[in-house]
C-alpha cells in the first residue's frame, strides 16, 4: 500500500487541475472560461503561464523540504477542553451566521463591525483548520468536523468538504493508496461530480434565498457548467495568463500605489497601516476582480492571482518576495518543530499551497500568525500548569 503525504496530495490536485485547464484551453481554440466570462489567450502565453506556475511551486516545495525530514513529534497536543472550546466557538460562529448573516456569502445584512473584526481575527474556520488535526479525541474531532461542514453549508460555501478532507489528511499524516482505496475515491469523485449541479443550485439558493427544487431538466447542460465551475475553483492558470497579457497596466497601477503591497496583506500589518491614516487600497487579487471580471471595488473578491502573478508584476524584484516569505515560513516551521507536532507542520504546508499558490497572501499570513499564537499559548499552559 502506497502512502502519500498531504502536501504531495494537494500539489497533485492543483497541478493536475491547471494542466487539465491548459489542455482544454488549447483544445478549445485558446478560449478559456473564468469567473463566468470567456477569454481568448494565445498559446505562448498559456504555456509561459504554466511554466511560471511550476516555477513558483518549486519555491514552495523547496521551503517544505527544509523541514520535511525533521523528526517532528507525533503527539496530538489538544485535549478535551481545547476540543470543547473549538466546538463552542464554531457553534457561536454558526449562530451569528444564521441570525446576523455574519460570513454568509451574498448576505445583505449589515453586520456589526466589531463582530466582523472578531470573526476575521479569531475565525472559527481557521481555528478548526489549525486545531482539529491535533485533537487527541477522535470523537471530538468528528463532532467538530460535522459542525464545520454544517456551518460552511449554512453560509453558502461548498468548499468546506474539501477543506475538511485536507484537515483529515493532516491529522492522519498520509493518504492511503491501494486498489481498494482508489476504487473508493473514484466512486466518491463520480458521486460528487454527478451531484455537483444540485450542490451548486443549493449554494445559490442559500446565498440568494428561495426554495430548493430537485430539477433534472437540462441536467447535461448543468453538469457541463458544474464541471467548468469546479475546475475554475482549482485553477489559476487563466488568471496568470490574463495578468501576463495586461502586465504593463498592472505594473503601472502598482507603481502609482493603487495596489496594496504584498507585505501589507495580513490583519496586523493592515491594522497599523490604517492606524497611520493611510488610504484604503485594493489587494492585487481584488484589483484583478475589478479590472478583469467587472467587480465593484466595494464588493471585489479575491481573484486567483497566484504567486506566479506576483512574479509577473514584480519581475526582478520577485527575489524580495521570496525572501519575505522565506523569513516568515522557515522560522514558523522551526517553531512548530520545537514546540508543536507533525500535524501542525502538515497544516501549514498544505495551506501554504492552497493560499500562496492561489495568491491569497493575507489569508496565509493570518493563518501563520494565529498558528504562532495558538502554539505559544498551548506551550505556556503546560509551563504554568
Question: What are the main properties of this structure?
Answer:
two-stranded antiparallel ribbon, two-stranded antiparallel sheet, 4% strand, 17 helices, 385 residues, mainly alpha
Summarize the structure in short.
With 385 residues, the chain is mainly alpha-helical.
**Percent of residues in beta strands?**
under 5%
Instruction: Summarize the amount of helix as a percent range.
Output: 55-70%
Please state the average pLDDT score.
Answer: 87
Strand order of the largest sheet: 1-4
What is the gyration radius calculated from CA atoms? 21 Å
Quaternary structure type = single chain
Element-level helix/strand string = EHEEHHHHHHEHHHHHHHHHH
Major pleated sheet: 2 strands, antiparallel
- What overall geometry do the principal axes of the alpha carbons give? globular
Count of runs of 4 or more consecutive helical residues: 17
How many angstroms separate the termini? Answer: 42 Å
Low-pLDDT parts are: none
Count the strands?
Answer: 4
Secondary-structure-based class equals: mainly alpha
